[in-house]
Specification:
Length: 263
């Protein structure tokens, strides 16, 4: 009798856990829209690309990739390398990218790219999974956001061009907001953009129409991977100018830089 109970409870546990697995696989991807679906050339693999909006903008953009086998089962441990690519005829170049880790979360691999120009881009993606390797190229048309979200300066300290991208706050509120930006150095031929950790950033918000600033701001400091985090205080709604100074090794590398935020 005891044995029977044990078998029944083991069976029950197996059924429950397989139900749970199905739930995960069938769970709709919340707030994400599928913007591409195709197969990985030279393999039996399939790929899906998701983003938070149907339109893509010249900004720090996050995407999610699903990799599936021929039967449509999600693959959890694919190796993925993304290269954003723009062919301008006279020249080709890439963009800053933060590649996904080798294990999926909820069957999705998250990565971010910073589109430094508007126009036609391709996400060239190399995928290795289930002992197969192949590539897929996903076209994207990148639009200009209402206010620029990616800017650049040529450093007075080392002569290199740096791109910096606005990340947070995405939904600004009156009061103290977490602020985050990312800084990337331009590599040779604009084909690589290593994250930069060398900057000391000064932040001074200003409301140009009213000629005032705000107290209690915290200048963004490097937290890893070229990301800098601080706090910005919006004392009222309207158009704000976030004035930024970039110092590198005691030299003013980039001055009079700013993002405009309106809410
Ligand atoms: Cu370009």
């Amino acid at each position: 009798m005891k044995k029977l109970f044990l078998i029944v409870s083991v069976l029950f546990a197996v059924i429950m856990s397989s139900c749970k697995k199905d739930e995960v696989q069938q769970q709709p991807v919340i707030n994400l829209e599928k913007i591409y679906e195709g197969s990985v050339e030279g393999t039996g693999l399939k790929v899906e690309l998701y983003s938070k909006q149907i339109s893509q903008y010249a900004q720090y953009s996050t995407f999610w990739i699903a990799v599936k086998d021929a039967a449509g089962n999600p693959i959890q441990n694919a190796t993925i390398n993304v290269v954003p690519f723009m062919d301008m005829g006279s020249m080709q170049h890439s963009a800053p990218v933060e590649n996904p880790s080798a294990s999926a979360v909820d069957n999705l691999y998250k990565f971010s790219a910073v589109f430094i120009m508007t126009g036609n881009w391709a996400l060239n993606i190399n995928i290795t999974a289930n002992s197969q390797t192949g590539a897929v190229s996903i076209p994207l048309n990148i639009q200009a956001p209402a206010k620029p979200k990616v800017k650049s300066f040529t450093s007075s300290a080392d002569g290199s061009k740096y791109f910096y991208a606005y990340i947070e706050p995405t939904s600004p509120v009156v009061g103290i907001n977490d602020m985050e930006i990312a800084v990337f150095k331009t590599g040779p031929m604009m084909m690589t953009f290593p994250p930069d950790s060398s900057m000391t950033i000064g932040l001074e918000p200003e409301m140009p129409s009213m000629g005032h600033g705000s107290p209690n701001n915290v200048s963004p400091v490097h937290i890893g991977n070229g990301h800098y985090k601080g706090k910005v205080n919006f004392t009222m709604t309207g158009l704000w100018k976030l004035n930024l100074d970039f110092m590198s090794g005691g030299t003013l590398a980039g001055e009079d830089q700013y993002f405009e935020i309106e809410f």
